[in-house]
């Protein structure tokens, strides 16, 4: 009898390619519109075993001060103690705990721990695997992941009545990884 484990297969290391990736979010404002934003400074690693995402592991670090909503005053407010407190909590992190195939082609559920400020909570990302492309510049792996979090769960509690800032934050990431 032969037993195979994840360690039986060669593992491949990948690093996020920031030139072909984006970490985006949006949140309701005043109950009538949506504010879009993104983070510009981040690193991410992916380890795969085989040709699928099953048994893959992910870890990301985002520099919160790189937040960009295209409005400097708003960005500065988001960096303040009212929201992210970037002086005290400069990084946001995600570390995967498991990934499960859903039975749909190229569709997975990615479970992991998201840390914002001083709070770590489990989140589940809905992941679409775009596959692997090979070129003269090496191999690239692409995916899209999305989830929704409640900002109050992470002590981002700024909520004056006049501000009208929503509590649910939609996160959509488009990632391309370069094989190492």
TrEMBL record:
InterPro entries for this protein: Lipid/polyisoprenoid-bd_YceI, TTHA0802/YceI-like_sf
Protein name: Polyisoprenoid-binding protein
One Pfam family matching this protein: YceI
PANTHER family xrefs: PROTEIN YCEI
Superkingdom of source: Bacteria
Start and end residues of each Lipid/polyisoprenoid-binding YceI-like domain: 13-178
